[in-house]
């Protein structure tokens, strides 16, 4: 019995040709079917990219915060991971100065996630151009994770990293896209995709408007902790549990986005100090100043 019978029912050339045509719409050049590699989900494509780059002593630059699967796949392929920060005061742009400081002759790639996960930001054309120029200067690949590219809405429209492929013919771009059957690309009207994004935007607007109606001491949508006031808190998970229990404020621990940075930041701030309740740890608007991170605290009459 031929156990490969289903293999002969599949036409692998057709989907890659269709994907190439679809992705070429937003690029200054035309892709061919040879430029498209179809995988089973994001984890497989991440691992596939890293296994091609792995070699003894190699390192890869990953964003913090970011997507934890990159660390997992890098560790499995014996790639050293070096994290560069995303700058919240600049809309979570990549810290280009940190990238240049971290990179060396063994750096094989820089990963960017745009639109951002978990930060939800979308990079401007100008910032992406600077990233491309930095990669060209330092001679490494850019792995552009654009899974949410065509679901973005807001001030910054999605710009595919492939738009800057002209910066270096020797250092190509990887771009990750959610897979779709060929029929979706061929038979679905563009109006459907636009309507889907509009529905998502309307839903987001409704959610934000309703949140504004909740009686809170409203602060800008970012947060920062006064680490000098932390007492009897071991890590970010411990802090999250105690904040939820004492103040009914639920946050996502940083470890869920790749990196437990709590202890490093605490040491930089000079250690612990006596404090009261967790609400005392939240920056007041007059203390934090512009451009710092804040979180809302319960409104009191």
Automatic annotation (TrEMBL):
A GO BP entry: L-tyrosine catabolic process
Residue ranges of domain Aminotransferase class I/classII large in the record: 30-159
UniProt superkingdom: Eukaryota
InterPro entries to which the protein is assigned, alphabetical: Aminotransferase_I/II_large, PyrdxlP-dep_Trfase, PyrdxlP-dep_Trfase_major, PyrdxlP-dep_Trfase_small
MF term (GO), any: pyridoxal phosphate binding
Protein name, UniProt field: Aminotransferase class I/classII large domain-containing protein
Provenance organism: Populus deltoides (Eastern poplar)
């Amino acid at each position: 019995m031929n156990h490969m019978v289903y293999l002969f029912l599949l036409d692998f050339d057709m989907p890659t040709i269709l994907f190439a045509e679809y992705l070429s719409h937003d690029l200054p050049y035309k892709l061919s079917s040879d430029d498209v590699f179809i995988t089973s989900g994001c984890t497989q494509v991440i691992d596939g990219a890293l296994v091609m780059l792995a070699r003894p002593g190699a390192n890869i630059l990953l964003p913090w915060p970011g997507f934890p699967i990159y660390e997992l796949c890098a560790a499995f392929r014996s790639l050293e991971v070096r994290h560069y920060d995303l700058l919240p005061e600049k809309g979570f742009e990549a810290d280009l100065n940190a990238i240049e400081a971290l990179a060396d002759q063994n750096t094989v790639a820089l990963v960017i996630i745009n639109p951002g996960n978990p930060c939800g930001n979308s990079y401007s054309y100008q910032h992406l151009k600077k990233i491309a120029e930095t990669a060209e200067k330092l001679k490494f690949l850019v792995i552009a994770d654009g899974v949410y590219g065509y679901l973005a809405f807001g001030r910054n429209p999605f710009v595919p990293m492939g738009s800057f492929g002209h910066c270096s013919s020797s250092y190509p771009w990887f771009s990750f896209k959610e897979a779709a059957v060929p029929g979706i690309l061929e038979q679905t009207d563009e109006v459907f995709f636009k309507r889907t994004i509009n529905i998502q935007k309307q839903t987001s607007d409704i959610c934000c408007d309703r949140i504004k109606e909740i009686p809170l001491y409203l602060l800008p949508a970012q947060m920062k902790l006064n680490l000098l006031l932390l007492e009897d808190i071991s890590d970010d998970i411990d802090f999250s549990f105690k904040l939820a229990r004492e103040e009914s404020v639920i946050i996502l621990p940083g470890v869920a986005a790749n990196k437990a940075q709590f202890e490093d930041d605490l040491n930089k701030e000079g250690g612990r100090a006596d404090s009261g309740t967790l609400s005392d740890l939240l920056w007041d608007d007059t203390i934090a100043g512009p451009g710092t991170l804040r979180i809302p605290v319960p409104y009191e009459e």
